[in-house]
Amino acid sequence: MIEIPLRKSEHGAVRIASSSLWESLGSIGLLASHRGLGPWPYVNWAKNARRSLNRSNMVVPGWLLYLCSACGGTLPSFLSAVPFSTKGDLEEEIELLRAVSPTRVRAELEQWFPQGIPAEVAPLHSDPGAAVAELCAFLPQYWRAALAPFAAPLRAATEEEILLRARVLATQGQEKLFDSLHGRLTWRDDLLRLDVGTLRVTVPDVSRLVIVPLLFGRGASFFTAAPDGTAALSYQAKGAAVLVGEAPPDRRSDVPSRGDRLEILLGRSRAGVVRGLVAPTTTSALAATLGLAPSTVSEHLTSLVAAGLVQRRRAGMRVLYELDGSGAALLEYLDNRHSVLADRRQGLSGGSGRSTVTVPDRHR
User: Fold this and answer.
1) Handedness of CA 292, 295, 296, 301 (dihedral sign)
2) DSSP-assigned beta bridge partners for residue 233
3) Taking CA atoms, which of 116, 135, 248, 338 is between 20 and 30 Å from 328?
4) E strands within 103-252?
5) Taking a C-beta distance cutoff of 8 angstroms, is the pair 261, 119 a contact?
């Protein structure tokens, strides 16, 4: 149990940030704890990640695998620096990891293993500098092999999660925010408790707290503290269902595909939005399917509605978008891939024949 004294405080004492380093460590922990098929919704991701790692002849450091499996999903805090932005820049976080002192590494390991350092962790304890340097060299390669193919939907889901939690924090306060996270985190009598198994740590003098949403936070509870009084902890974010399907194409580049008339006219990402509207859908569902940020999809939808190509309507608590007659005609004429009219007919009958991933819409 990690206990963090945290009183109801002034605005700015609690904030939300993302971390590519924490996501990487969480995903490694998931692979370490499920040697066969991973749990839903990580089954397809785990299969692709293992295939890619094997193809690249990459091996996770043995001491890290042992820590992931032996510590119940939690890791010593020297591995996870406090993230300071919503961008989650992996290179910047690796530099902070590289700067960790060997003294701190040994002290934390001895706290975690008071009965003696296990043989599997001995290389890290005996030469922390070399072991941490090995990890810092491994992590960018791991990210490219295991997470980069899913980077776009991961980024979109994380951005939406941060917006959701920031709205709760701004409008209802930190107590409501903590209550909404559930899982291993509880807050009572001005004491924030993080359940991490048998380890007991009380953190003094916490003046600021950073909450880190992890799509790979299932079973993992990461925590760290900085000398300036800032502490950070993770929780399982919503939106991990974006990992169910195959990795979508990376649409961050808007360069049109060769010979694709719709992409040449509208740009690659906006053409993807048009193609995704042959049946009614929501902003967040479309963003997850295309691997784009919800804000980007919303911008495209606003322009397409203004141009008279897309219609917008409310259905209960959701806002749905669909091609209007002009949009359907444009897609029918320019799309090289399929017959939009056939897709619309199948969509109205309940089966579009497409494999898509949808998530609950939180944009109203």
Assistant:
1) positive
2) 211, 223
3) 248
4) 185-188, 191-194, 201-202, 208-214, 223-225, 230-236
5) no
Rounded Cα–Cα distance for residues 110 and 124 (Å) = 11
pLDDT tens digits for range 233-268: 888 888 888 787 666 555 555 666 677 788 888 888
Q: Alpha carbon of 113 to those of 34, 54, 106, 117, 120: distances in Å?
A: 23, 32, 10, 6, 12
Cβ contact 5:191 at 8 Å: yes
CA angle 299–305–308, rounded 5-degree value: 145
Phi, psi torsion values for 263, nearest 5 degrees: -70, -35
pTM for the model stands at: 0.68
CA of 229: how far to CAs of 35, 161, 213, 218, 254, in Å?
A: 38, 25, 20, 27, 43
The arithmetic mean of pLDDT across residues 104-132, rounded, is 94
Q: Which residues contact 261 (CB under 8 A, 6 or more apart)?
A: 334, 335, 336
Q: Which two tokens stand for residue 192?
A: 């924030």
**Three-class SS of residue 225?**
strand
Residue with tokens 């599997």: 120
- The three-state secondary structure class of 12 is coil
Report all structural domains of the chain as residue ranges with CATH numbers, in order of start: 2-242 (no CATH), 248-348 (1.10.10.10)
Indicate the SS3 state at residue 77. helix
| pLDDT tens-digit map of 136-150 | 999 999 999 999 888
Closest CA to 238 of 219, 218, 268: 218
Decide the pairing of beta strands 14-16 and 208-214: parallel
Q: What length is written for the chain? A: 364
Beta bridge pairs of residue 194: 2, 185
Question: What's the pLDDT at 35?
Answer: 74
Burial 26-42 (b: 16+ CB within 10 A, else e): bbbbbbbbeeeebeebb
State the CB neighbour count (10 A cutoff) for residue 308: 11
- In whole angstroms, how large is the CA radius of gyration of the chain? 23
Closest CA to 26 of 219, 211, 158, 182: 219
